[in-house]
C-alpha cells in the first residue's frame, strides 16, 4: 500500500502594506471649498462685528474639513479682548453650534474666528498615511495626528513628545484617536521594533489588538493588575539603563546602532497606552502616580513612552505631578472651561465640536494647534489585527505538515488564537480541543509554554526564580512530577499534561513549583526547561523538604 506524503505548501506571500491599506476605507470625495459661500459668510461676520462696535476687515480665510478660519484684522484702537468675548453672540448671529476665537492668531496681526462648516467633511486615515510626510518618515514612532484647519495632514514623532496626555468627553473622538496612533505605528513598525503595554479598564477598544505580537501581554482590563504591570516596566527601564551603561551609550538609538554593528539583539521601543486613567487613579492613586511619574521622568532615553487618556480631566486624575511630566497634551471636546484649563492650561477645548475635533499642544509651544483626527472604524481595527496575527501565525506554525493557509484561516476565523494567550478563559479547554483538531496538541502547548507574545530580552535573561519560602504548599502530584522530569532530564507543561493526565493550568503550577524547589531551570523562552538535578540522592534530599 502506497503511503502518500503530505507536501508542505510554500508560505503565502503577502504584501503587508498593500493589504493594510486595502483594509482602510477609501476617502470619499474630498470636501469642496465654496468660495462664494465663504465670501458671504465673511461679509456677514464683518457686519455682525460692526454691530458690536468692532470695526475691521477679513484679510484671509482658511477652509478645512470641519471648520473655516476667518482672519479678522481689527481697526486701530480696537482691543482684542472685546472680540474674544463675542463668541456666543457671533455663534447666534451665524447660526453656528460653536465658535472659537483666537485673539490673536500666533505670529499674525489678526484675530482668528473659527466657524463650523455647514457640511462637515470626514478625515480618512488612509489618505493621511499615504501623505509623503508620513510615508517617507524613517522614525519607527512616527504617527498621524490628523488634518489642520487648512486640510493639510499633520505628522509627528512620539520620541520627541516624549509622553502624551489626552482628555475629552464621551464621544469626543478620544478612543478613535488612540486607534489612529496604534494603526500608524503598526503600519510602520514590526514587533521587533515597537511593543505595546495596553491598559483598558473599559474593556472596549484595546482588547481588539490582543491577537497581534506587538503586545507585551494581552490588554489589561483590571485596574489592580495595571499596578503590577507598570512596576514591571519600571524594572525593565532600570535594566536598560544598566545595559546602556555597560555598552557605554546614552540612549536607545545609540544602543541599537551599536547592536546592529555587532549583529546583536536590538531593543524595541515600548509604548504604554492607558485608555481611562481615572479608573486606575480610583483603584490605587499613590502607586499609579508614583510609577507613572517615575517612568515619565526617566524612560525617554531607554525608549519607553506613555500615552494616557481620560474623560475626567480633574485635578485628582491629572495630578500636578503627572501633568508636569507630560509636556505634550491633546484636548478633545470637554465639558467646561475648568476642564480645558486642567488639560491645556487655557480655555478653548470647551468650544470644540466633538467627533475628532482637537487642540494639540506640542511640547515647548505656548499655543495649541487645532486638528481634526481621522475616523477609524472598529471593523478596520479588527481586520488589521487579524492581518498582523495571520502573518505572525504563518511564522509560528511554519513547521506544520499541512496547508498552513487553511490552518491559520481557521484559527483566526474561529478565534482559537485566544487559547495561546488566556489559559484561564472559561472556554479554554473546549477551544484547546477544537484547536487540537487543526494542529498537534504538542505544538499548542509548546506555544503556550514559550508564550504567544515574544518575550523581551530583559524578561528572558533577568527573570528570577520564585523563592522557596514563597512555596508554602505543593501539589499532591509534585513528587511524581519531580521523578518524571528527573528521568527525562527535561521539563515542560505539555510533558506533565501527557504523562500525568493534567489540565494545562495545574501542570503549569507544578512546573513553577519545580522551579522554586531548584529542580528545573527558570523559564528561558524555549520549548522545555533543563533539569538542574543530576543525582538521585540530590533529588531525594530536595523532595524531603516538601514532604
TrEMBL record:
Residues in FtsK domain copies: 151-341
Cell cycle as UniProt keyword: no
Keyword Plastid assigned: no
Recorded GO MF terms: ATP binding; DNA binding
Record-listed ATP binding positions: 168-175
Key words of the record: ATP-binding, DNA-binding, Nucleotide-binding
Any Pfam family the entry gives: FtsK_SpoIIIE
Stored InterPro entries: AAA+_ATPase, FtsK/SpoIIIE/SftA, FtsK_alpha, FtsK_dom, Ftsk_gamma, P-loop_NTPase, WH-like_DNA-bd_sf, WH_DNA-bd_sf
Gene3D superfamilies registered for this protein in UniProt: 3.30.980.40, P-loop containing nucleotide triphosphate hydrolases (3.40.50.300), Winged helix-like DNA-binding domain superfamily/Winged helix DNA-binding domain (1.10.10.10)
Family: Belongs to the FtsK/SpoIIIE/SftA family.
Name this polypeptide is given: FtsK domain-containing protein
